[in-house]
Write a structure and sequence with these properties.
- This protein is mainly alpha-helical.
- The chain has one domain.
- The chain contains nine helices and no strands.
- Helix 2 packs antiparallel against helix 8, helix 4 runs antiparallel to helix 5 and helix 6 packs antiparallel against helix 8.
- The protein is elongated, with a radius of gyration of 17 Å.
């Protein structure tokens, strides 16, 4: 029972981050930090070897460095960069490439959906404040949604669920 609940920690936080990003266009540092801290607990409970755990941290750090460069060029949001790095820590080196491919695919779909949404006149829709903000041209897109979607697709094939599975 406890291992089943542990399997839901990562997906729950990723969904929380995505929903927050939609409503506020922000991903709290506490979510990314929580993901990293909870990874340590999950890895220890799952019996992940220390070398593998350190490789996962190396992957997260490498992704953080890469996304911070993208952030400097205003190609990526800071919260998105931290979320992608924290998620990469859970995903690990074996599934990193599929994870990034899925994030890219979902990001492209999200961009198309946002363009379509923004092409409809706002006055034609009864929108709450958060939806009006998303509707504004020139605003960013809640890329945390794409990151979370990619993570949810790949997560079942990563080491933590495999170690904790039946």
């Amino acid at each position: 029972m406890a291992t089943s609940a542990l399997l839901l920690v990562f997906p729950s936080l990723m969904i929380f981050a995505a929903v927050n990003d939609v409503f506020t266009m922000r991903i709290a540092n506490s979510v990314s930090l929580g993901l990293v801290v909870l990874f340590v607990g999950a890895a220890l409970i799952a019996g992940m070897p220390l070398q593998v755990m350190l490789l996962h941290f190396g992957v997260g750090f490498a992704v953080l460095l890469a996304t911070m460069v993208l952030f400097q060029f205003r190609l990526f949001g800071g919260g998105d960069a931290k979320l992608l790095a924290a998620a990469s820590t859970w995903i690990g080196y074996q599934q990193l490439f599929p994870f990034l491919i899925w994030v890219t695919i979902f990001g492209g779909v999200l961009a198309i959906v946002m363009l379509a949404y923004r092409s409809v006149p706002a006055s034609a829709l009864p929108l709450p404040a958060w939806a009006l903000r998303l509707h504004k041209r020139g605003e960013g897109i809640p890329y945390g949604v794409a990151i979370a979607a990619g993570a949810l697709v790949v997560y079942p094939t990563t080491i933590i669920p495999l170690l904790l599975g039946p």
